[in-house]
Amino acid sequence: MKSLTSAENALKQILEGLGYVVVSFADRSETDRANTIYMQYPLHRFRLDFALPSAQICLEADGERWHTSGLRRIKDRNRDSAIRKSGWKVIRFQSTLLEKYPAVAENQVRRGIDQLMLI
Questions:
Q1: pLDDT in tens, the chain (119 residues)
Q2: CA distance 52 to 35
Q3: CATH 3.40.960.10 fits 6-117, yes or no
C-alpha cells in the first residue's frame, strides 16, 4: 500500500476517532463489519482514498499540493461524476481543514457521513 499523505492520515485519525475501523483494502478480511472503512478501495479505474462500501460513500482527502490547480480540480470533478454515476456519494475534505482544524473537520466528517447515509 502507498504511504498516506498528511491529509489522508488526518482523515484516517478522524474516522477512527468516530468509531470506524479503517483498514487497507488489501488487508480486508471476512470478519470486517459494516463500520469498516477501506483505504485505497478499487472502484472501476479509480482508487478511492476512503470508502464505506456498506453505504457507498467515498471520502477524499485533498492535499494542497495535488488539488489546488485548475486542471486537477477539473479532473477531480470528472472523477467524482464517474463515481457518482456508479451509485456512490462523494465527500471531499481539504487538507487545511483536516490538519489545522481537526475538531471542525471531525464535525463535518460526522455530519457528511450521517447525511449521506440517509440518502
A1: 578 999 999 999 999 999 999 999 999 988 888 889 999 999 999 999 999 999 999 999 988 765 456 777 788 899 999 999 999 999 999 999 999 999 999 999 999 999 998 87
A2: 7
A3: yes
Domain boundaries, the chain: 6-117
Which grid cell is 102? Answer: 481537526
Place of cell 482523515: 11
Cα–Cα separations (whole angstroms), residue 35 to 3, 31, 95 = 23, 11, 24
The model carries a pTM of: 0.89
CA angle 63, 67, 69 (to 5 degrees): 140
Angle 53-36-104 from CA coordinates, rounded to 5°: 95
